[in-house]
Design goal:
single chain, 93 residues, four-stranded antiparallel sheet
């Protein structure tokens, strides 16, 4: 599982969550964390889409955000059925 952020500095334009393999019905959401504490849900649960690139199969969810975040905020992804893993990206200047 991984999370990717597209943006410039503190401005986040898009967030993508990827999960290896095909797992129909899986959902993802993203939240903001600061100093190890939950701040808010950035976007709620969304169904992930099954895709294939060559032999690589994966699930993907994408959100358009277009907002600024505070320096050192973390955007974390949560995927249903995979609560033990929560990858994060730190937003920096």
């Amino acid at each position: 599982m991984s999370v990717g952020v597209i943006g410039d500095g503190l401005k986040v334009r898009e967030v993508r969550v990827l999960l290896d393999g095909w797992k129909p019905g899986v959902r993802a959401r993203i939240s903001e964390w600061r100093g190890g504490e939950w701040v808010r849900d950035v976007r709620g649960w969304k169904a992930m889409s099954s895709r294939q690139q060559g032999r690589y199969k994966y699930e993907i969810a994408t959100w358009k955000i277009n907002k600024n975040f505070r320096d050192r905020s973390r955007i974390c992804a949560e995927v249903s059925g995979h609560a033990e893993r929560m990858p994060c990206v730190t937003i920096k200047r």
